[in-house]
Amino acid sequence: MLPAQERSVMLMKKIAKGTHRNVNYVSRLFQPQNVVPKDGIVKREDSLSKSQKLMHDLGVIRQASPGAFHLLPLGERSLQKLIRIVDDEMCKINAQKLLLPLLTSGELWKSTGRWEDIGEELFTLKDRHDRELVLSPTHEEAVTELMASIPQLSYRQLPLLLYQVTSKFRDEMRPRFGLLRGREFIMKDLYTFDTSAEAASETYKAVSKAYDNIFRRIGIQYFKVSAVTGVMGGSVSHEYHFPAAVGEAKLLICESCGYGTSLESCVPSECPECGHGFLKCCPGIEVGHTFLLGTKYSVPLKARFTTVEGKSDFLQMGSYGLGMTRILAAGVEVLSLPDEMRWPIALAPFTVCIVPPKVRKEVRKVQWLT
């Protein structure tokens, strides 16, 4: 490999000749910024998080309506970098990518009981034929119906791991903090199907390892904590959090062994895992959640497979989510200063900015590279 100085010279020559393809000019970048006039008065916004203010003021996002945001070119570039990391780690565990419809039948949600359980946070509507539909906050019902529609699904086809990266909707009463809590957001959701509870547990371990790899590649400290399953159901659940003062989750973390749990109220106590450490209370931003679901969805939606003995049995499921746009905002929240936005290097929209020297009276062009 050529020394760094020689590589830089070659790169500059390519830019000068116009032969380098991955060049983006700052002067052409769509980045509407919130510019404060000289001696202008800035109105204090106590309700804004640090990430929301910085991402808005520096042209990464733009609010469309309460809880919904335009993701501008810088934000979209960061999102695509995150998606590439996720796709890479999902590929390593043989997960396959698909795309499910955002509109799902209300009857599906009623059959699993979540129409009532989720309640007013569920975005619902009716079509011209008076059929009830849901703007999905998650896709357990839809993907389970998909599996139920496949005739003669064999044990030989399992385990099966299916995931997507798509928009989700939640009718938040008080959307706040920009991308940290909105009514529309982008999520990576993975659904797994196994032949037995034991096999599903092994798949859960494999996906959890992939999630650990994703967060290590992002490069921000995170906590993995045990959690309640809630309306999702199932027997096992873990959350992934970035520690941050603005975080709404209350975490208890053992400073000795790293054990953690998510609770409604923080009461420091002795660690139940190692027995000699103490649990310290800290706030966190939830950026991921995993569930071992069992047959909560496969039974009511009749999703079955044929066993090795030729019998019919219900699929054992798992559900695994990553808040993609929330990860972007949480990364900015954790790393930035009040007046200086900082990205984790793995998600930075651009990693190199070249300012060529001024040549005679020509106006120099500032260039950003991928």
From TrEMBL:
Reaction(s) this enzyme catalyzes, per UniProt: tRNA(Pro) + L-proline + ATP = L-prolyl-tRNA(Pro) + AMP + diphosphate
Pfam families: tRNA-synt_2b
EC identifiers of the protein: 6.1.1.15
Aminoacyl-transfer RNA synthetases class-II family profile domain boundaries: 46-344
One GO CC annotation: mitochondrion
PANTHER family the UniProt entry points to: MITOCHONDRIAL RIBOSOME PROTEIN L39/PROLYL-TRNA LIGASE FAMILY MEMBER, PROLINE--TRNA LIGASE, MITOCHONDRIAL-RELATED
Name the record gives this protein: Probable proline--tRNA ligase, mitochondrial
The organism of origin for this protein: Cryptotermes secundus
